[in-house]
Write a structure and sequence with these properties.
246 residues; alpha/beta; 2 domains; Rossmann fold; three-stranded antiparallel sheet; 35% helix
């Protein structure tokens, strides 16, 4: 497990036709060991840019990011994107084996176990094109978690799914997170999704991208949670009000 510390993050991009877009301005964010944090905000507020900077996929113009392992070893970090990004010429088994080390037999046992965990037992020999979008995304989640990482960065991983499928995979994700105990940073524009999943919601405003409010969900609604709990709906409405103010 690990803690992620981002300090003084600035990020700018060239705007079409000239000028500069200030995507992030002096953002500080610490995500502690084992915490589930959702970055919530409208399109263009910089939440994906912040996630990419924290994940090491993008260099900031100013500031630092440090991922500190509680064990003193190099932390294992994985990223799950909105698109599954499975390799189309590989089977499901081969896509998962690609991220694993060790002998083939041990890898296959682990793969079969994880496919069962995400509700995809029996699909190991399928190719991505033979799976629905929701099934592909379950494989993507399994690929991100099968190595039992210290930190997982997730960029709107359920944003392209229908709500019924997304509801199921959210519950599966919470179970897997509880089993592994990893740190998760999760980008979403869905306030109800954020309140169901997060220990803490970090609400971002735009122009420039910055943190405008934080909601400590676990202090108000303990786990396990019921998606129909009115307390979650009230928190979601509170988040929307802060979004409007930001």
């Amino acid at each position: 497990m690990a803690t992620v510390v981002a300090q003084g993050i600035d990020k700018r991009f060239d705007a079409p036709g000239g000028g500069v877009v200030e995507a992030l301005a002096n953002v500080d964010l610490t995500v502690v060991d084992g915490e589930f944090v959702c970055l919530l905000g409208p399109s263009g507020c910089g939440k994906t840019t912040l996630l990419n900077v924290m994940a090491g996929l993008m260099e900031p113009d100013a500031g630092t990011v440090e991922i500190r392992s509680g064990e003193g070893d190099d932390p294992v970090v994985r990223t799950v994107f909105q698109e599954s990004r499975l390799l189309p010429w590989m089977t499901v088994r081969e896509n998962l084996a690609f991220v694993l080390d060790g002998p083939t037999r041990a890898k296959n046992v682990r793969i079969d176990d994880w496919l069962g965990r995400v509700g995809l037992a029996g699909t190991a020999d399928y190719y991505p094109r033979q799976l629905s979008i929701g099934m592909q995304q379950r494989v993507s989640v399994a690929r991100g978690l099968i190595v039992e990482p210290d930190v997982v960065f997730m960029d709107e991983p359920f944003g392209s799914l229908d709500e019924l499928t997304a509801m199921t995979i959210r519950e599966e994700l919470l179970t897997l997170w509880d089993d592994i105990g990893c740190t998760i940073v999760f980008v979403t524009h869905n306030p109800l999704e954020a309140t169901l999943l997060a220990d803490r919601i970090v609400i971002m405003g735009s122009k420039p991208g910055r943190i405008v409010h934080e909601e400590l969900v676990s202090d108000q609604v303990p786990r396990p949670r019921d998606a129909d709990d009115l307390a979650l709906w009230r928190l979601a409405r509170s988040a929307v009000r802060h979004l409007e103010l930001g």
